[in-house]
Specification:
The chain folds into 2 domains: 158 residues, Rossmann fold (3-Layer(aba) Sandwich), CATH 3.40.50; 125 residues, Rossmann fold. α1 packs across α9 and α7 packs parallel to α8. It has 295 residues and is an alpha/beta fold. 46% of the residues are buried. The chain has 9 helices and 16 strands. The radius of gyration is 20 Å and the shape is globular. The longest helix has 17 residues. A 6-stranded parallel sheet has the order 2-1-5-6-7-8, with helices on both faces. A 6-stranded parallel sheet has the order 10-9-13-14-15-16, with helices on both faces. It has a two-stranded antiparallel ribbon with strand order 3-4. The structure holds ribose-5-phosphate. Ribose-5-phosphate binds next to β13 and α7. The site of ribose-5-phosphate (R5P) has 12 residues, from β13 and α7.
């Protein structure tokens, strides 16, 4: 297998190639003055299984376009198969039509990948796996979704969070809290969260938890503006938590997310390297390499 670390995942792509002892093929890329992307694969991929590693944040539209160009270039060059490894899959939160007339964005992304010749898609902690499966059923692309939550929990265990309460920001994500609790050994629970589909305003109600003097970790798939995480952390601190860690797989950290979460009282912020940030102390390279070995 040949690994192509895309412009958005040079570090992670290199780590995956190293785990697989595979050749890493560099990519030439630039942006034209008018904003268009240029891509050139720097090696012959004819007859090869090609895994393109390209996350899609920040700047999701550009990263997605680069991914499509790399996939199409590999297909046109006669690759035997093209696998898209997209650690953070942009548009995965628009997996349903919440209002009539809305674009079903995730479906469009999968359709575009298929048109570029992708047969397998590997993602990490996709926002809602059941909805992704519904979309997958309409296409030929097969999707593999792996989770970084146990790795994040393991890391926090090493930092003294063993036995801590694991929480998810809403009931729909309770599987993340449960996965963490299996590693940390403490209980799991969730917050009651609702979002106004028109204004986007989020309200969160902490459940009646006995957290006083205890440690807690809030796990989310994505931290974007930091609003959800800040509300959760503040609620725990108000209830007397001794130490609170904010953990996520995909650290998008738009605007003042870090400051918001720190102000809310977080003692630790941790993420994986699906999107590389100063908080990416956990790598998903081994997880993805293991998945690629199965192909
Ligand atoms: C939404 O349902 C996701 O799981 C996250 O909770 C959300 O994307 C976080 O967004 P923000 O950081 O802007 O509150």
């Amino acid at each position: 297998m040949i690994v192509v670390p895309g412009p958005a995942s040079v570090g992670l792509g290199g780590r995956i190639a190293a785990q697989l002892s595979a050749t890493a093929v560099p990519v030439d890329h630039r942006t034209f003055p008018d904003g268009e992307s240029y891509i050139r694969l720097n090696s012959d991929v004819k007859g090869e299984d090609v895994a393109i590693v390209q996350t899609t944040a920040p700047d999701p539209d550009r990263k997605l376009m680069q991914l499509l160009l790399m996939a199409a270039a590999a297909t046109d060059a006669g690759a035997r198969s093209v696998i898209a490894v997209v650690p953070y899959l942009a548009y995965s939160r628009q997996d349903r039509r919440f209002l009539s007339g809305e674009a079903l964005s995730l479906d469009t992304v999968v359709r575009l990948l298929e048109a570029a010749g992708v047969s397998e898609l590997v993602v990490v902690d996709v926002h809602n796996e059941p909805f992704l499966r519904t979309i997958e059923a309409r296409h030929r692309v097969r999707v593999r979704n792996v989770s970084a939550i146990p790795l994040l929990a393991e890391h926090l265990k090493g930092e003294g969070y063993g036995g801590a309460l694991s929480l998810s920001p809403d009931q729909g994500a309770i599987h993340h809290a449960e996965a963490s609790a299996r590693v940390l050994g403490g209980p799991s629970s969730f917050f009651e969260k609702s979002r106004d589909r028109k204004t986007g305003e989020v309200t969160m109600k902490a459940k009646d938890l006995d957290i006083s003097g205890k440690r807690a970790v809030v796990f989310d798939d994505i931290i974007s503006s930091g609003g959800t995480m800040a509300l959760a952390v503040a609620a725990l601190k108000t209830q007397g938590a001794e130490r609170v860690a904010a953990a996520c797989t995909h650290a998008l950290f738009i605007g003042g997310a870090e400051e918001k979460i720190r102000k809310a009282g977080a003692d630790r912020i941790l993420s994986s390297d699906t999107v590389e940030t100063p908080f990416s102390d956990v790598t998903v390279a081994g997880l993805i390499a293991a998945e690629l070995r199965k192909l």
